[in-house]
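Hey team,

Filing this mostly as a record. A colleague (T.K.) asked me to run one chain through the structure pipeline before their review meeting, and I want the input and output archived in the tracker in case anyone asks later how it was produced. No errors, nothing strange. Just documentation.

Input sequence:
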Amino acid sequence: MPIEAYVIVSANGMLADSTGVMPDSLKFPADQTFFESALDDADLIVHGRHSHEEQKRSNERTRLILTSSVPALAPDTAHPHSTLWNPKGASFEDACKAAGVAPSARIAIIGGPHVYAFFLDRYDAFWLSQAHDVNLAGGLGVMPGVPERTPQDILAAAGLHAAETRVLDAAKRVDLTAWRR
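Output structure:
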C-alpha cells in the first residue's frame, strides 16, 4: 500500500498562519492542480480533524480522520465517506479495513502536523511544495519541530531523500520536491 503525503509550506516551513488557517498566500494554481490530481488518484485520504482539502470532489473521497474523540474506530456521521480513527485504539491496517480500502490502496496523507509526523516511518513519497517568497511568522509548522528544524531536515532524518524537484511557478518561486525512501 503506497503512502504519499502532500503539502505546501512557506519559506519557514509553515502550512498555516497563526490562526491555523491556510492563507491565500500559500495557494498557487499549479500546486492546487497537482494536489487535486493526486487526491483524485488516491483510494484513501488521511488527515486530522482540522485538515480538509476543500476541493470540488472532497465529499466523494473515502477518508480516515485521526481523532482522539473515539476509542478506536467509528463512522463519521457528518461525512458519509469518512471513518473516525484513534490510532491509540486501532491499527492503521484495521482503520483501512474499516474504511473499506484494499491492501493495495493508494493512501494520501494531507495533514495536519501530527498526522504528517505519525506516518514519517511509512512514507513511500512526501511531496513537499514550498513557496520561497512567503513567510508566515508565528504560523503552524508542517510537523512538530518546525521551524527549529526545517521540513527537509526532518524528512532526511526519517530516511527520505530529495529525489526530484520541479518548478511550479518560477515567477513566484514555488517548487515541488518528491522526497522518497
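Quick notes for T.K.: The chain has one domain: 3-180. The radius of gyration is 16 Å.
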